[in-house]
Amino acid sequence: GEDVEQSLFLSVREGDSSVINCTYTDSSSTYLYWYKQEPGAGLQLLTYIFSNMDMKQDQRLTVLLNKKDKHLSLRIADTQTGDSAIYFCAERFRDSWGKLQFGAGTQVVVTP
Amino acid sequence: DGGITQSPKYLFRKEGQNVTLSCEQNLNHDAMYWYRQDPGQGLRLIYYSQIVNDFQKGDIAEGYSVSREKKESFPLTVTSAQKNPTAFYLCASSILLEGLGKNIQYFGAGTRLSVL
Question: What distance in Å separates the CA atoms of residue A73 and residue A18, rounded to the nearest whole number?
Fold first, then answer.
């Protein structure tokens, strides 16, 4: 289909790991991204992964990419209350100008 | 500080009125974008511009217009033809891509538009 799909909500306890999943649409997409949006704010790039990689780690963040299943995940280790936000995955189409297609976002709520 | 500035933060539109949302960037980026965000939905592309004096329609351009007279500025006008304008509007910018490079878009803080 045309949509990048994400589950809409995730609740996690402080200190646990969070895993946010995303299914994207185009197997030839070149880059995949994770953005974070705090309430009333714009989007902030968290990390990205090139399509020829399986995994990328950046401090508490781990991105896993399964190209065969077109599945992308973001793991946040030791989740903190400051991680409460909406997380968007996005794919960059293999076209001339690099259109990004965004998912609907996953609302992550961190409870004490 | 380098970044993208959107103004105003909140905007109210009366019936039949056109309103203009401002977006200014000092990142020296060539490409700029406007997105619309509705609750529970992803970002939908309204218009984009890769270079001064040129812009292209995105997925939901009807009822909107833009101009790109300066590299730093990409204002969006929500016209009276847009019957459901209430949404959060986000402006973004990026370097002009060559080939299949990553398109990292940087976002402003957004403008929330409501109808009176």
Answer: 10
